[in-house]
Amino acid sequence: MKCAVCDSVFDDGVQCGVCKKYLDFGCANISEAGYKKLGADRRAAWKCPQCKQSRLSPAPSNDSSILENILRELRDVKNQLAKLSTLVDEVKCIKQELSGLKESCEFNGDQLDKQAVRISNLEQKIPDMQKVESSIEATTTDINALKKGLALRDQWTRLNNIEVKGVPVKTNENLYSIVESLTKVVGYSFPKSQINYIARVPIQNSKEKYIVINFVNRYIKEEFIAAARAMKHITSADIGFAGNSQRTTKLNHKFLNSSSLGNLKRQMGMRFEDRQPPTQHFSHHDNGN
Questions:
Q1: CB 222 within 8 A of CB 176
Q2: What percent of the chain has pLDDT over 90?
Q3: Contact status, residue 195 vs residue 213, Cβ threshold 8 Å
Q4: In angstroms, rounded to a whole number, what is the distance separating the alpha carbons of residues 45 and 42?
Q5: Which residues, at least 6 apart from 85, have a Cβ–Cβ distance to it below 8 Å?
Q6: From 72's CA, which of 25, 65, 66, 274 has a CA 20 to 30 Å away?
Q7: Over residues 84-95, mean pLDDT
Q8: Which InterPro entries does the UniProt record give (predicted)?
Q9: Helix H or strand E segment including 109
């Protein structure tokens, strides 16, 4: 309990029967033993010094009561103001957080506006991109058609090639003379002008070089191959290489991407093969040079 006079806290005291306030024994001007000796009725009728004095002079007692009420209210206001200071600090923190949230929302709004502009620009470009895609597809189709056409043309050009293997390499050799010797051996002659070009081409992982002959007329080439097929074998000595009569020189023919024609199966001394025109790593004789 709290004393109504000195505001001190106490465990045991007295209560005024008039104002019902609690007082400690010191402020009540009565001892604990004296208060306890009073009977129940007398304790209920006991009056505090202020109430006793108010019977003699009511006006001053009334003013004192009013003053106490004012002081009590002032203490309450003081306590509320102390709490209000904490509340103001909390409101400031909330205000700062709301300000940061507002800035974040404004930033996100700006970003959304920018993204909307970008999306709008992309949507405007979609028709142009579709046109470009269609153009690319058409161009790709044209390129594939050109590739096929070039492949067919290249394959057709290679049909005029013959590959001659097994002919020894000589210094300062004349490939046209070697071909002329071959025509005499196989018994089929053709004008030199029917040779588009003739060249030596190295064989991979070998010191040997074969001869590639490109004919102007494919039928001349076919007849030359047919004449070579009729020979059982052709040796290097047959075409002017003295001291070398081994049956190691062979003449076959084959076509690129044409399994039905394949390599010539008959084993001959010299082999003729259709061959892709060489483009590097060989010496090359053009017709008429």
A1: no
A2: 18
A3: yes
A4: 5
A5: none
A6: 25
A7: 85
A8: Znf_FYVE_PHD, Znf_RING/FYVE/PHD
A9: helix 58-158
Average pLDDT over residues 277-289: 39
The tens digit of pLDDT for each residue in 34-81 reads 878 777 778 788 888 888 877 655 445 566 788 888 888 888 887 877
| Separation of alpha carbons 19 and 200, rounded Å | 137
Contacts for 13-18 with beta carbons within 8 Å, 24 or more apart?
14/43, 14/46, 14/48, 15/46, 16/46, 16/47, 16/48, 16/50, 16/51, 17/43, 17/44, 17/45, 17/46, 17/47, 18/47, 18/48, 18/51
pTM of the model: 0.41
Q: Show Cβ contacts of residue 161 under 8 Å, excluding neighbours closer than 6 positions.
A: 212, 213, 214, 215, 221, 274, 275, 276, 277
Are 238 and 182 in contact by the 8 Å Cβ rule? The answer is: no
Q: Measured between alpha carbons, how far is 73 from 70 in angstroms, rounded to an integer?
A: 5
What confidence tens digit (pLDDT) does each residue in 216-241 have? 998 999 999 888 888 877 877 888 77
Start-end of H helices in 159-266:
175-186, 218-229
Task: Supply the pLDDT for residue 124.
Answer: 87
Q: Spell out the domain ranges in the chain.
A: 14-85, 159-286
What stretch of H or E contains 79?
helix 58-158
Q: Which residues of 206-224 are buried (b: 16+ CB within 10 A; e: fewer)?
A: eeebbbbbbbeeeebbeeb
On whether the CB atoms of residues 134 and 127 are closer than 8 A, the answer is no
> For position 56, what pLDDT does the model report?
55
The residues with which 98 forms a beta bridge, in sequence order, are: none
